[in-house]
Design goal:
This protein has helices spanning about 5-30, 40-55, 65-90, 95-115, 120-145, 150-175, 185-225, 235-250, 265-270, 275-290, 315-330, 355-370; strands at about 255-260, 295-300, 305-310, 340-345, 375-380. α1 (about 5-30) packs antiparallel against α2, α3 (about 65-90) runs antiparallel to α4 (about 95-115) and α6 packs antiparallel against α7 (about 185-225). The chain is about 65% helix and about 10% strand.
């Protein structure tokens, strides 16, 4: 007994896909270009929208259009969604094998539509192709850590629809054969409804994943210097404060290095600001290679940087500072000029130390290094 008209489900699925496509297209226009994959997700839903419209009137259309065109649009939409997720997670897609597979299954499907009509065989081929597409899509999201509710939602829905495809395939062997997608049997309509709601939930999870990524990028912009990717002054001050409080609780020692590139204004004046930017980026990149994972590097403005070294004695801090000084003055093969650095060191040696007092001691030591000839390390 039929409890819902299949054509209505197809039409509603297409309409939901079209609405979600409009939302994603709107998001794509307002989100930064660094968030990739939104266009492919949008076009995937547009294809599902068109396929839903065709499915609703497929009985009034020639089989080549009503069946052949609808099927390849659905399969292409599912692959395009997977393609978009690959781009979203910064994975380079390899479309040729998938395009070949989809086209090959479509040719076989058309054989069993026009030459030797057999709906059950077409259904099994379609189930296996969709199971593969949903399965690799779920695996892709799982590989990129289920660290947000949006990813968990997308993974769960893709896993569920994969299970539905398996059940649908199995029922073609265990239940009376169906003759078309418009079949009114209860299992057939459950499968159709499951697909429809899965597309809606996957669309919602895509929007949520894009929103999560935007929030992450905004947080990164708020905590990272846009040129060098070092921590901003505010973020660095917060990190120093947290580490200082931890040291006070556990009677630990930490070190601060205040570093200022020597004669940096002359670099800008002689070589231009672009060369100056290269010097800054190279300095941060080289210093990060010397620091441990727990250490942090921040840019306090212009050519001044601060390094936070947790669990570090004065002697160890001096060794790190000398390594930084040596690598800063080294010659490199790029076009940016070499630029030496003056470094001041301070450790939390006094019970009433604050972020300001530590930075003041390290800053004063750095200025002594400047006064004593630059390209040297002083202790505050």
């Amino acid at each position: 007994m039929s409890f819902i008209d299949s054509r209505t489900v197809f039409l509603l699925t297409g309409m939901m896909g079209g609405l979600m496509a409009l939302i994603l297209l709107s998001i794509r226009r307002s989100y930064p270009s660094s968030i990739k994959g939104l266009s492919e997700w949008s076009y995937s839903l547009v294809l599902l929208f068109l396929a839903g419209l065709l499915s609703a009137v497929r009985l009034q259309l020639p089989a080549v259009v009503g069946i052949g065109l609808t099927n390849i649009m659905i399969w292409s939409a599912l692959y395009l969604g997977y393609y978009g997720s690959q781009r979203f997670f910064c994975i380079k897609p390899k479309p040729l094998p998938w395009v070949s597979l989809v086209f090959g299954v479509w040719l076989a499907s058309m054989w069993f539509t026009v030459v030797d009509p057999n709906y059950v065989v077409r259904l099994r081929m379609s189930n296996m192709l969709m199971l593969l597409l949903f399965g690799v899509h779920a695996h892709l999201i799982y590989q990129n850590r289920l660290n947000s509710s949006a990813k968990v939602m997308a993974f769960s829905v893709l896993l569920l629809i994969s299970g539905i495809q398996i059940m649908r395939f199995v029922t073609t062997f265990t239940m009376p054969p169906v003759i078309s997608n418009m079949d009114t049997s209860l299992p057939q309509q459950i499968f159709i409804l499951g697909f429809a709601f899965s597309i809606l939930l996957i669309s919602i999870s895509m929007i949520l994943m894009a929103t999560d990524k935007l929030r992450t990028e905004l947080e990164l912009l708020a905590t990272r210097d846009s040129l060098t990717n070092a921590l901003t002054r505010r973020s660095m001050n917060d990190s120093i404060e947290q580490e200082l409080q931890r040291c006070k609780r556990n009677q630990r020692q930490m070190a601060l290095l205040v570093m200022d590139l020597d004669h940096f204004k002359a670099v800008n004046d002689s070589h231009g600001h672009q060369a100056g930017d290269q010097v800054l980026m190279r300095f941060v990149n080289n210093v990060n290679k010397l620091l441990r994972q727990v250490d942090q590097l921040g840019r306090f403005g212009g050519e001044e940087f601060v390094a936070l070294l947790p669990e570090t004695s004065l002697q160890d801090a001096q060794l790190v500072a000398e390594r930084i000084r040596a690598i800063a003055g080294a010659k490199f093969g790029d076009s940016a000029p070499a630029c030496t650095v003056s470094i001041g060191i301070a450790i939390n040696s006094q019970p009433n130390d604050t972020v300001d007092t530590l930075l003041a001691r390290a800053d004063a030591a750095m200025y002594r290094a400047k006064a004593n000839g630059r390209n040297r390390v002083e202790i505050g």
